[in-house]
Amino acid sequence: MMYNIAYTQEAFEDLQWFRKHEQSMIIDGIEQQLRYEPTVETRNRKRMSFNEIAEWELRLGNFRVLYNIDEQVRIVEIQRIGEKRRNAFFFKGRKTDV
Asked: What is the pLDDT of residues 30-81, one digit of tens each?
């Protein structure tokens, strides 16, 4: 079963912050990893501990895609896109607590 992918305004702005080739890599990774089985935990996909941003995290190298899933209408909503350096998340180059 296929899921639709939607981006919040904040996620769209996060994506614009990256270089073009990074944007392509991130979008390709989202399509490959989240289109069909976004709720299946893998090495790169995991449920996050409680936070105010999202329930799930997708790892694409140093990039992180935080997302929620609406099972009823089969939509993956991308909340934020950033980088992870050591144990810290960075959105648009700024360190953020998650």
From this structure: 999 999 999 999 999 999 988 889 999 999 999 999 999 999 999 999 999 9
| Number of domains composing the chain | 1
DSSP 70-83: ETTTTEEEEEEEEE
Residues 67 and 55: their CA atoms lie apart, in Å, by 6
In the structure encoding, which two tokens stand for residue 12, read together?
Answer: 């769209």
Which residue in the block uniquely carries the two structure tokens 């935990």? Answer: 41
- The CATH number assigned to the domain holding 64 equals 3.30.2310.20
Structural domain that includes position 58: 4-96
User: Is pTM beyond 0.90 here?
Assistant: yes
